[in-house]
Design a protein that fits this description.
By secondary structure, the chain is mainly β. It is built from 4 helices and 29 strands. A 5-stranded mixed β-sheet has the order 1-26-25-24-23.
């Protein structure tokens, strides 16, 4: 959990970070230099933006703050942010994630650390249902959650509980019921769960234990459901699904030490691995100690990019790198960033990036080329630079 008054790493390290090339070369390498199109402070009080959720139509934005408050914004076609509700919901514990339904931008789910996942109807502002698991005693402390592709199943992950197990909890959203849980495949806190973007039965999970597991949740029990297991050999911060150029499933992960790994699911092999020092070189910076690897985003053109920056000077440096054939290529340079970024979302259709972080700012980044033709522009620039769920209920004694 981040503190209310987070400090950047430049206050801990006296060695200043800087660009590793001059301004002219930097401009040539990063063909898109983007200024924010809209920026707003979430609060006049000191706070940190920790969670972002964007509706599929790209018009609604939910923001989770370290003050345990969820805010709602509208996003205009030109990227302007309009505050709809500065305190849509306030919780007793930290917000661990938010997500809109894929087919309904008026339906939002929010997960909290104390063990609740709240389902909201934004048209009325009411709580439709509150999901929790008390099947084996007290609520379990939750760490993350996700909704599958058809908006039918929700999975929430937990910390290690008193009995020594960490859980993946499954709920039927339509029936408002608890379906069951997995608890044998992770030995430490589960940090992230991600459903496959098109297959509603495929789920990946990641943990402090260094494992990424892939499940087919249509199978009758946990043992049968486990399809693949990747040992990253490092604590994992986040994971994401991607498609290879040959339409194979890839899973990427960012570790707690700011390393990046990419795996192919079918062959169970690592595709590429970059440590923090390598990513620092790709972003054209000098201090790997300040390198902040933030997130990966699919770009809408069958590719993905890595968002990274520097924690030096309050996160002023923010850049993206496009993945291309086992390399990262300079992609976008986001100018005059004002905070260390902790969360980001990306609108693939409009090529619009939204970030939030330790200064409590919500920033929209749109390039002048953010049009339907943007995907073709990005692809040519990159080339130029290169020259059903059935989960068993098993009583597990503690």
């Amino acid at each position: 959990m981040f503190e209310e008054d987070p400090q950047s790493s430049d206050e801990e390290c006296p060695v200043p970070d800087a660009d590793s090339c001059d301004a002219k070369e930097l401009k040539l390498l990063f063909e898109q230099h983007i200024k924010s199109s809209s920026e707003t402070a979430a609060s006049l009080k000191r706070t940190c933006g920790l969670n972002l959720a964007l509706s599929n139509d790209g018009r609604k934005l939910a923001v989770g703050l370290s003050r345990k408050v969820l805010q709602l914004y509208d996003l205009g076609t030109n990227g302007e942010l309009v505050l709809c509700n500065a305190e849509f919901a306030k919780y007793k514990s930290a917000i661990k994630g938010a997500k809109f339904f894929g087919n309904n931008p008026n339906t939002l789910m929010v997960c909290t650390e104390e063990g609740d996942v709240n389902l909201y109807d934004l048209r009325t502002g009411n709580t439709v249902h509150r999901f929790d698991d008390v099947s084996e005693g007290p609520k379990k402390t939750m760490t993350a959650f996700d909704i599958n592709q058809n908006d039918r199943v929700m999975c929430a992950s937990t910390e290690v509980q008193k009995g020594g197990d960490s859980f993946l909890l499954f709920f039927d959203i339509r029936e408002r019921s608890f379906l069951g849980s997995y608890w044998e495949c992770h030995s430490e806190d589960v940090t992230n769960v991600r459903f496959h973007p098109t297959n509603p039965d495929l789920l990946s999970s990641a943990s402090v234990d260094g494992l990424i597991n892939v499940f087919d949740i249509s199978k009758p029990n946990e043992d049968d459901a486990l399809q693949d297991c990747f040992n990253v050999e490092n604590s994992i911060e986040s994971i994401n699904w991607h498609s290879s150029p040959t339409d194979k499933d890839w899973i990427s992960c960012i570790t707690t030490t700011n390393d990046f790994h990419l795996y192919e699911v079918e062959t169970q092999e690592i595709v590429v691995e970059f440590d923090r020092e390598s990513i620092t070189e790709y972003t054209k910076r000098t201090s790997s100690m300040d390198c902040n690897v933030i997130n990966t985003h699919n770009d809408g053109s069958a590719g993905f990019f890595l968002l990274a920056g520097s924690n030096y000077n309050k996160g002023e440096c923010l850049r993206s790198l496009r993945y291309d054939n086992k390399h990262f290529l300079p992609h976008r340079n986001f100018l005059h960033n004002k905070q260390i970024i902790r969360a980001s979302v990306y609108n693939e259709k409009e090529h619009c990036l939204i970030t939030t972080g330790e200064s409590g700012l919500i920033t929209v980044w749109r390039s002048a080329e953010s049009t339907p033709a943007q995907a073709e522009f990005d692809t040519s620039a990159s080339k130029n630079l290169k020259q059903k769920l059935h989960i068993s209920h098993r009583n597990k004694p503690y």
